[in-house]
Amino acid sequence: MHGKPLVYLDNAATTQKPEAVLKVQDVYYRQQNANIHRGVHQLSEIATFEYEKARGKVKNFINAADVKEVLFTSGTTAGINLVASSFGRTFLKAGDEVIISAMEHHSNIVPWQLICEERGALLRVIPMNDNGELLMDEFERMLSPRTKFVSIVYISNSLGTVNPVSRIIAAAHAVGAKVLVDGAQAVAHTKVDVRAMDCDFFAFSGHKLFGPTGIGILYGKQELLDAMRPYQGGGDMIRSVTFEKTTFNDLPYKFEAGTPNIVGGIGLGAAIDYVNTIGLGAVSAYEQELLAYGTAELSAVRGLRIIGTAANKAGVISFVLDHAHPHDIGTILDREGIAIRTGHHCTQPVMQRFGIPATARASISLYNRADEFDSLVRGLQKVQEIFG
Ligand code: C6P
């Protein structure tokens, strides 16, 4: 980039794609391309087989009980909107409460605002401390029989905080509330076991897990998905249609209206194979070392303040620098070949909480190296030469 070797530290936005993911997509379009679940011809059977095989890989990857609980979506955002809309329209009523946290991505705020407004429910927010850790006592005090839903981010994209999701889920279940975990930033960094966690829903995006864009997963417990209204109507989600009455297809198809992103699903399957070959245990251990190294290096930069200093962190180092706006930092680093993200990271309430307009954010993946943080620090020294 700009004649320099790329230092890619924007993995929370999206990850780079391994050869194996590119290969299966190429093979699909050259040799297997057909619509799925519809054709009696062999090509359609092959495409259907490959797509459903990928669903099976996702099921094993997150340890769902059944493929019926694994819905293909276009990404985390679509998964959360599906739950807010469909669970909300089925179960939420006036006076109910939905709880989210102060560090949610906009895609885990706005869908809940919309449905709460529609149903006359109240949206409540778990506050956090100056390190970017949720105030769990406050959360536990908020819970009551009115609480119908808790929707919480597993790993914050702007702070890096790893939230105690198992504790949150157990406390919510104790008052009869259901829980969605936004796993967008979790799946590439830590082993996810939806049954051990006991979440009711879990959403993530393929593109943050080395897969293609436009594909994602919503896990949901079967009894809840069975009870929920469909989200969208169209092909594949029906059993029979007349002008008087429509009956719906079985799970997972009830929530998969229309021709899906077939190649995306197959690509996500290949991405999961790739991650499994390396092992998330090894990934997590390596990334924790990298995070510690990067945190120490950046902390030593004059005038730099890290935003998000939770005891339990993963993947992300957000920071501000005296005298330089994050956008200027990002632009100068870009000239050095260093890709980071700057801005509010779709978490404006986090910026408001810390009284800052934006941060610069370095986010890591398994292919990053310690020396890339050395390059980042040299880049920041250039920023300081310019801004004093
Ligand atoms: N965060 C980031 O740079 P989609 O866009 O649907 O793939 O993912 C949305 C989303 C939901 N929750 C969390 C915690 C996220 O981090 C994201 C995406 C990117 O931080 C793009 S804004």
Architecture overview:
The chain is of the alpha/beta class. It has two domains: 7-16 and 279-387, Alpha-Beta Complex (Aspartate Aminotransferase, domain 1); 19-277, Type I PLP-dependent aspartate aminotransferase-like (Major domain) (Aspartate Aminotransferase, domain 2), CATH 3.40.640. Helix content is 41%, strand content 17%. It has 13 helices and 15 strands. The chain has helices at residues 19-32, 42-62, 76-91, 110-119, 136-142, 165-174, 194-197, 222-227, 262-278, 280-299, 326-335, 348-354, 370-387, and strands spanning 7-8, 70-73, 97-101, 122-126, 147-153, 178-182, 201-205, 216-220, 238-241, 246-248, 304-307, 316-321, 338-339, 341-343, 359-363. The protein has a seven-stranded mixed β-sheet with strand order 2-8-7-6-5-3-4, with helices on both faces. Strands 11-12-15-14 form a four-stranded antiparallel β-sheet, covered by helices on one side. It is globular. The two termini are 26 Å apart. 47% of the residues are buried. Residues 12-13, 75-77, 105, 107-108, 153, 157, 182, 184-185, 205, 341, 345-346 line the site of ligand C6P. Ligand C6P binds at residues 12-13, 75-77, 105, 107-108, 153, 157, 182, 184-185, 205, 341, 345-346.
**Overall number of strands:** 15
The Cα radius of gyration reads 22 Å
How many domain regions?
A: 2
What spatial form do the alpha-carbon principal axes imply?
Answer: globular
Give the % helix. Answer: 40-55%
**Poorly predicted runs:** none
Provide a brief overview of the structure:
This protein is α/β, with parallel strands linked by helices. Helices cover 41% and strands 17% of the residues.
